[in-house]
Amino acid sequence: MLGIRPSGPVRVALRVLVLLATLLGLAAPPAQAASTAAPFKVLALYSGTWDAAHISFVREANQWFPTRAAENGFTYTSSTDWNLLANGGVNAYQVVLFLDELPQTANQRAGFERYMRGGGGWLGFHVSAFTTQAQNWPWYHQQFLGSGNFKSNTWGPTTAVLRTEDRTHASTRNLPATFTSSVSEWYSWSNDLRRNPDIKILASVDASSFPLGTDPNQTWYSGYYPILWTNAKYRMLYANFGHNAMDYASNTPLSSTFASATQNRFLLDGLKWLGTT
User: Where's the ThuA-like domain (predicted)?
Assistant: First the structure.
């Protein structure tokens, strides 16, 4: 078969086409690289032994968080082994959750303080701040949380209208100015968190919530009550909710802590901030 050599003008045209294709290829934006970021690891610690309302919340949390993990870039492990704080096991995780308790032994407490001072992330719920003896762990209750002792609570568990006080923080920037929480029992504290320069209050009870509670002897009628906050010296968030309404006689939950989509947005955005900053 005889080869046909292009004429001079045709060869020039072909060279121009090749040059244009090369230039266009150089100018084209590079293909979007697939994300290779590994998911951050979340460890949830709990006891699950006290108060049916807290146990109900723990069961919900251990179902809800795993179903949201993959699409939000994290893995979720739950454990009742609080000694992971003492023996360094917690160091394999970027974020630790306290679902219904706080460390009890000196070694657990020292390990948690090391973890936080070393840059670990923490999200605590409801009873994780409860104490009437803050002097027994002053770093945690007075400095880290800043709340001091438990002062009062509402009863029975109800929703509350919350006012978002800081919409610039990563955990609250997608929240509206006010929103309705899920049902919970609400705690107040001996310390005024507004006077602590390290504490940034993210949301508090809006005045439209009053009276808050169903028992006249355990109802808030006025006042200032922080619900969500962070400490600027640490990667931490505290959420006052985490107590479902219960029919105690039949051990039946009457509410869900994850019923509020807006409140859930805070949890997921907060976890991402804790796990990736």
Answer: 46-252
